[in-house]
Design a protein that fits this description.
By secondary structure, the protein is an all-alpha fold. The chain is about 70% helix and about 0% strand. The chain has helices at about 5-20, 30-40, 50-60, 70-85, 105, 110-125, 135-150, 155-165, 170-195, 200-230, 230-235, 240-245, 250-255, 255-275, 280-295, and strands at about 95, 100. Helix 2 crosses helix 6 and helix 10 packs antiparallel against helix 14. The structure holds geranylgeranyl diphosphate. Geranylgeranyl diphosphate binds near residues 49, 85, 155, 159 and 182.
Length: about 300
């Protein structure tokens, strides 16, 4: 019987072990503070959902997760960099993340900027290391996909669109555009990079792209709702930060019950996108509902 929470917990252990090896501490180097800052945020206890999505997709195609460990680590490193930079005074100016002081609160703003920069660039170093048993052109396609989704066709674009939209009138279409960039794009990076590595067909990749984008939207709406009615102790950060930062969210544009219904609609649409796959996609099928019902 498939237990999704156990699967995610095991994925977290596997990627943490890989990251510990791939980003080792350099205590005696002149730049030791950079390593402390990077590792402080990397090992601060995230849910490790992007590596779990990456492994689940590799395994959907019958591949072993060990083959892609550097990619799983790289995806979590890119996610971590985005959180470090997002917490900076120039962006959200947050003091707490995952229940602990944010990177810049502990190591200073300059070092937090560099920790983010180093995590991002080292992620690309890891993804371009030769992978045993995987053709180089598949690895190239996977790395290219991550670059697009993490950057100008995804996460950075979404973050910039959100900054530009601050203080202006926003509608649902703009909100979805922002959320697809900020949240869906890294889910897509995880899922599609695994699909490229596994040699998925164009039809399979298109189905997974739709799934990832819809999964991101339902995850983000749940996040918006948690920021209003979640438990700060469970979330590890204060609630109400979206309102404080004047962020348009599903919870500010719509009554909560309506926002919840939109999350459920995107969850159902994400599951529909997987129709081309057999029962090997059952783990991916279970995730949208889990993401909507989560408490952190
Ligand atoms: C600074 C380029 C740049 C981008 C920042 C990630 C991000 C974009 C902003 C953080 C705020 C936010 C709510 C983003 C949406 C994505 C998201 C829900 C991040 C949190 O992901 P989780 O819940 O985090 O997987 P954990 O802590 O479990 O790793």
């Amino acid at each position: 019987m498939l237990n999704v929470n156990e699967y995610i917990a095991q994925a977290a252990k596997d990627v943490e072990m890989a990251m510990d090896k791939l980003v080792p501490m350099r205590q005696t180097s002149p730049e030791a503070a950079l390593y402390y800052a990077m590792r402080y945020s990397l090992f601060a206890g995230g849910k490790r959902l992007r590596p779990a999505l990456f492994f689940a997709t590799l395994e959907l195609f019958g591949m072993k997760r060990e083959a892609g460990l550097p990619f799983a680590a790289a995806l979590e490193m890119i996610h971590t960099y985005s959180l470090i930079h997002d917490d900076l005074p120039a962006m959200d100016d947050d003091d707490l993340r995952r229940g602990q002081p944010t990177c810049h609160k502990v190591y200073g703003e300059g070092m937090a900027v560099l920790a983010g920069d180093a995590l991002l660039t080292h992620a690309f170093a890891l993804m371009t290391m030769p992978l045993e048993g995987i053709p180089a052109e598949r690895q190239m396609a996977a790395t290219h996909e991550v670059a697009l989704q993490a950057g100008l066709s995804g996460m950075v674009a979404g973050q910039a669109a959100e900054m530009e939209a601050q203080g202006k009138e926003k509608d649902r279409a703009l909100l979805d555009y922002i959320n697809e960039g900020k949240t869906s794009a890294l889910f897509a990076a995880a899922i599609l990079s695994a699909a490229h590595l596994a040699g998925a067909t164009e039809e399979e990749k298109e189905a997974l792209r739709l799934y990832a984008y819809r999964l991101g939207l339902c995850f983000q709406i749940a996040d918006d709702i948690l920021d209003v009615e979640g438990d700060a102790a469970v979330l590890g950060k204060p609630v109400g930060s979206d309102e404080k930062n004047d962020k348009a969210t599903y919870a500010s544009l719509f009554p909560l019950a309506e926002a919840k219904q939109y999350a459920l609609d995107y969850a159902a649409a994400a599951q529909e996108a997987l129709a081309v796959f057999d029962e090997r996609a059952d783990l991916l099928r279970a995730l949208p509902t889990l993401f909507v019902e989560r408490s952190k």
